Amino acid sequence: MNLEGSFFVPRPRAQVWALINDPEVLRQAIPGCQTLEAVDDGYTATVTVSIGPVKAKFSGRVQLLDVQAPESYRIAGEGNGGIAGFAKGGANVRLQEQEDGTVVHYAVDASVGGKLAQLGGRLIESTSRKLSQQFFDRISDIAAAA
To answer: InterPro entries annotated for this entry (predicted)?
Structure first.
């Protein structure tokens, strides 16, 4: 599955970079996130997600690669949801500064296995788009309140 898009945050690029790399902000913004901790080169997290009839608690690790602060990086990660299956993938993230704020561009490539893979691509993709939009909306709300 591949998702691409962008969202606008009415803050300077350095502030947006700080927000999207702050573990507490990420914990608040990631739908279903129960725990999130910064580690050497990324984060560990526990996230509960419902996709159709399958609800799973994923534990995983995300690495930040090719970091070019405050401009871009690649995220690579993997999560295990027990009998529900697994998810793995990555995303390229690029922050483009504009006069009135910052556009965050993203390109995600992900795959799932186990019971999740049996649900069908359309359901997984639509749920992923919905969760992504919730994440971006929360980031924008947090930025507006800052």
So the answer is: CO_DH_gsu, START-like_dom_sf
